Amino acid sequence: MGSQKKIANTIEKTDDKSFKVITSDTEELKYSKAYRIKGVTRSIVVDALKVMDDMWEDCQESPQLMENYYQLRHYLSYLKRFCEGKV
Q1: Side-chain half-sphere of 50: how many Cα atoms within 13 Å?
Q2: Could you please report the per-residue DSSP string of the chain?
Q3: Neighbour count for residue 82 (Cβ, 10 Å)
Q4: How far is CA 5 from CA 8, 22, 25, in A?
Q5: Is the pLDDT of residue 37 over 80?
Q6: What percent of the chain has a predicted confidence (pLDDT) above 70?
Q7: Cα–Cα distance between 66 and 59 in angstroms, integer?
Q8: Higher model confidence: residue 42 or residue 23?
Q9: What is the dihedral sign for C-alpha 41, 42, 44, 48?
Q10: CB 65 within 8 A of CB 24
Q11: Is 60 exposed, middle or buried (0-12, 13-18, 19+ CB in 10 A)?
Q12: In terms of CB atoms within 10 Å, which end of the chain has fewer, N or C?
């Protein structure tokens, strides 16, 4: 079998807004709930923007759909930049 280094992770709640992962090497990583939510939100926005790209041709057939398309794309693009820390 040999000796393999096994790292055991322990999750400790530090307060209502964050937790930290402690490995057996005493390495600590701290994540806030807001940071985790921001990552999930970014992932959803990226997927939504891909769906919008697929809808592009359908929206060209109607001026109202095109206006809504651009407005929604603007909001999603801003939200993506916000989640990436670019705003």
Answers
A1: 6
A2: ----PPPPPEEEEEETTEEEEE-TT--EEEEEHHHHHHHHHHHHHHHHHHHHHHHHHHHTT-HHHHHHHHHHHHHHHHHHHHHTT--
A3: 14
A4: 10, 15, 10
A5: yes
A6: 64
A7: 5
A8: 42
A9: positive
A10: no
A11: exposed
A12: N
Show Cβ contacts of residue 65 under 8 Å, excluding neighbours closer than 6 positions.
Answer: 58, 59
| 9/12 Cα distance (integer angstroms) | 10
Q: Are 28 and 22 in contact (CB under 8 A)?
A: yes
Give residue 34's pLDDT. 80
**Tally of residues, the chain:** 87
